[in-house]
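Appendix C. Worked example: APC family permease
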Amino acid sequence: MPLDTAAMTTTGGQLSRSLGVGGNVLITLSGISPASSVFILGGAALAGYGTGVFWGFLLAGVISILIAFCYAELASRHPIAGGDYSLVSRVLGPAAGSAVFFIGLVSLPLIIAIFALGVADYLGVAIAGLDPLWTALVVIVLATVTACFNIRTNAWVTGAFLFVEMAALALLAVLGLIHIERPVSALFDPQALDLATGGLAPLGIAGLVLAVTQGIFSYNGYGGAVYFAEETKNAKRAIAKAVLWSAIITVLAELIPLTAILLGASSLEELFGADLPVETFLSGRAGETVTVIVLIAIALAIVNAIIAIALQSGRLLFAAARDRALPQRIAAPLATVSPRTRMPIAATIVMGVIALAACFIPFDVLLNATGSTLAFSYGFIALAALVVRRQTSRGDGVGHAASADSYRMPLWPAPPVLSLVAIATIFVIGILDPAQWLSLGIAIGIIGAGFAYFSLYLRRSPATLHLLAGDDDDDEDDEEIA
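Step 2, the predicted output written as structure tokens:
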């Protein structure tokens, strides 16, 4: 049976194909949360890499667009819920798919926990005495419940929150650009704070590469559009647009405010030496009252991101269950869709429970467990983007000829090749830095567990292997909404 047919006839109903490109982009951008990325990751980058943030985030933006090209072409050929897992398993095979499934199964709930544990820090400016753990638990429960509503409701909810955080980013950009203290050329020579002298010193190549890595991590999430492929109209055309628009908007929404801060800060030394550089800049230019309001907006942005990631994580588990990549007794309830909301409620709740449990894991362990998995996921996606056209030319079962409306990235195979080179560079830097060994080791262990799961269980399931080898061409005639 063709895979897309299986997708549309899952026990319990089908997902609601009711999102346009705009609705998909709203949810995807909410999961990225550009505002919290600028305040948290961007602020850490300013403290560590100084004006190198300009070049680091600019180069990271180029790499992110290249990876977005890979996602766009893969998703256009395989417009199926499940994100990276669905794409990789159908192009590189179920063994690689199992590894990517384990990455998502572990990292998505842990990311939710990390975000949730940080909400109290920002809400604390308005509500004193919030306990981080209890705040996180309440936020995750509310986000999981919201993620069980129908997809259009979630698009409206996340869109409203997203408007607030984009307004905060616009404020940062305006404050920097109306108080320009130095020319753009001052950013061309990367410099960072020298702790020994308190002045600025040239940033080395290693530091610049780490700034690029920070930027890639900050922009991460545009591939989340793929999770909603079965809920997006005209998916073969629309998903590619949603991925690319999400990546472009994210890069601009983060790079412009950070550049404005670098140009508009009264003193770079004071900016880079502050514990919270972005908040320090905002307070100095807009005052304490505005800063408090913006920090509350950042708390809302984090909650918004948790809702969006809860939506993604539920679809990951739903897709794997539907593919029979889990034991039947576990898969059957997880592969069902609510007949009322047409949402994978059981799968969403299970992932929410895992996220709740993750809140009790020490915070540094959470960070290490998620730190290096992103590079591995991107590596699988870039490799799949290289392989998919070769499968097409050979006429393999999973590499059926692309239809006329399938997206084809420009300059192939340059985007996936350059992406793999960038990812390999990140790995080399990580291996040379003992501080990253634990994070790399945990990521390798997760991937190893995925391959072991395939070897010990999944490859003994002929039905699953046959399903993953099917033709998942997206037949719009079969996708009309009742």
